[in-house]
Amino acid sequence: MRAVLSVASEVAPLVKTGGLADVAGALPAALAAEGWAMRTLLPGYPAVLEAARDGREVWREERLFGGPGRVLAFRAAGLDLMALDAPHLYLRDGGPYLGRDGKDWPDNPERFAALSWAGAAIAADGLEDWRPEVMHVHDWQAGLAPLYLKERGGRARSLITIHNVAFHGLADADRRAALRLPEAGFTTEGYEFWGRISALKAGLVWADRISTVSPTYARELLTPEFGMGLDGVLRAREADLAGILNGIDEAAWNPVTDAAIVRYRAPSGKARNRAALCAELGLAPPEGPLCVVVSRLSEQKGLDLLLAALPRLLAAGGALALLGSGDAGLEAMFRQTAAADPARVAVRIGYDEALAHRLIAGGDAILVPSRFEPCGLTQMYGLRYGTLPVVALTGGLADTVITANDAAMKAGVATGLQFHPVTAAALAEALERLAALHADRPAWTVMQRNAMRHPVGWAASAPAYAGLYAELAAA
Ligand code: ADP
Ligand code: GLC
Asked: From the CB of 331, is ligand 1 less than 6 Å away?
């Protein structure tokens, strides 16, 4: 087996705030099948150290951004992991990025510089018994690693994957020395971004290759509309940028074996889950489509558009069940909407893995009206469960759903609905069309069968990553 080091700020099932954790957690098994043994470095948050209790120390540095740091190698959840144990940075109450007050930890630049530093050190020098050929880093939290690696030298090559270009990892310019950044790199061609330090930009400039999580997002990133100020940097590196579609964890998301639901093989098996879900949430079982949402509540996800389009779904006989958390204003508005119409709208604010499974099994359709979506995983869960996705035509949503237009219906290949432009009006039209399709039982069942057969795993993407690693290692 060939060796690859992955550096990520969250890895499911140990720590997760979003899809990055799912992907970082799924990549090792997917790559193992391609002959690459991946070890993943992540911060030693309390839950991670708990799992690393019997870990073996493989690296240490006495003065790591304000205190001692060491790396513990251990196995958990079938993964080869390395925890960066640096209590002054990670041993605190709260989330991976935010304190209990909901604000970014003020020392986030140092916290993730330390992660990147340790990753680069391991990639450059190797460990006693392990020497990675490639270092694969994720998002801004590991963005400085390719720069540190280049500074150190060594044979390992680097790949950075963009899961979301909206988060830049900015720090004030006067922290350059504290973050161990070379002065000469503080330029427009380097890690400087409008007078500040950008960890993501450092990654995009210094990594040997760049990837993102869908082919459509790879193209969108090159435009001012989606590039969030980094489209110029990415255009300059277009030849080094690849779009590789995420897969889902097909063991965790499988209606045939899912312990959280009434299991099923065929679309007809959804009826019992639908009834149970309605009973659980206090919904009157709707005539029309029961639509579900499992999402972070943020501007990106376009759920304000859903609030505006909702009356048209309800008028068409549908109902809504939403699970999410995030933006306080959106949380309040969804709560109010549910309180005003509890038989047709159910809202649960929070993070609940098991409820997410019950929603996706019991819903008729899953809604993902994102303004931008690098890949998106929940629409793929929907496909696997015969819960038809209604998605904005953007990013990975464009690459995973076959919309029910006339041609696709005639060919019998449709799996869901896409709408464009990403407005409340277009979403409302899509929801009315959904209700019409739902009323046409035979057509609906064909779409469900198509959806459940659509490939959503890593079979195509794992070889794409392996190919990239091999190219990098050979360069
Ligand atoms: P993003 O990473 O932008 O949040 P993705 O669709 O890639 O979007 O991944 C989101 C992941 O987080 C999915 O696995 C989804 O099921 C999960 N998720 C999001 N919100 C919740 C929630 N409130 N409860 C349970 N799981 C959630
Ligand atoms: C990001 C994106 C999401 C993607 C996930 C995993 O959080 O917002 O679209 O699926 O990363 O790559």
From this structure: no
pLDDT tens sequence across 262-273: 999 999 999 999
Give the integer Cα–Cα distance in Å for 439 and 177.
64
Asked whether the beta carbons of 367 and 292 are under 8 A apart, the reply is: yes
Closest by Cα among 74, 97, 72 to 21: 97
273 token code pair: 């889950």
What dotted CATH number matches 267-453? 3.40.50.2000
Q: Choose one of 296, 325, 334 to mutate for the ligand 1 pocket test, by most ligand atoms within 8 angstroms of C-beta.
A: 296
Residue to mutate, 377, 379, 399, ligand 1, most ligand atoms under 8 Å from C-beta: 377
Does the Cβ of 280 fall within 6 Å of ligand 1? no
Spacing, Cα 275 to ligand 1 middle (Å): 24
pLDDT in tens, 365-382: 999 999 999 999 999 999
Residue nearest to atom 26 of ligand 1 (CA): 353
Of 17, 164, 245, 299, best ligand 2 pocket probe by most atoms within 8 Å of the beta carbon: 164
Q: How many Å is the Cα radius of gyration of the chain?
A: 23
Token pair, residue 125, equals 């020098």
The closest-lying atom of ligand 2 relative to the alpha carbon of residue 300 is 8
> What percent of the chain stands above pLDDT 70?
100
Q: What is the pLDDT of residues 12-69, one digit of tens each?
A: 999 999 999 999 999 999 999 999 999 999 999 999 999 999 999 999 999 999 999 9
Report DSSP letters for 218-269, one per residue: HHHTTSHHHHTT-HHHHHHTGGGEEE------TTTS-TTT-TTS---SSGGG
CATH fold, domain 2-247+459-474, is Rossmann fold (3.40.50)
Residue 475 confidence class, pLDDT cut points 50, 70, 90: confident
Domain boundaries, the chain: 2-247+459-474, 267-453
Per DSSP, the residues of 332-347 read HHHHHHHHH-TTTEEE
Query: Quick one: which atom of ligand 1 is closest to the CA of 356?
Result: 25
Task: Indicate whether residue 324 lines ligand 1 (CB < 6 A).
Answer: yes
CA distances to 305, 394, 417 from 421, in Å: 12, 9, 13
Q: Which residue's C-alpha comes closest to atom 11 of ligand 2?
A: 163
Q: Is-contact 277 51, C-beta < 8 A?
A: no
Return the bridge partners of 56, or none: 73
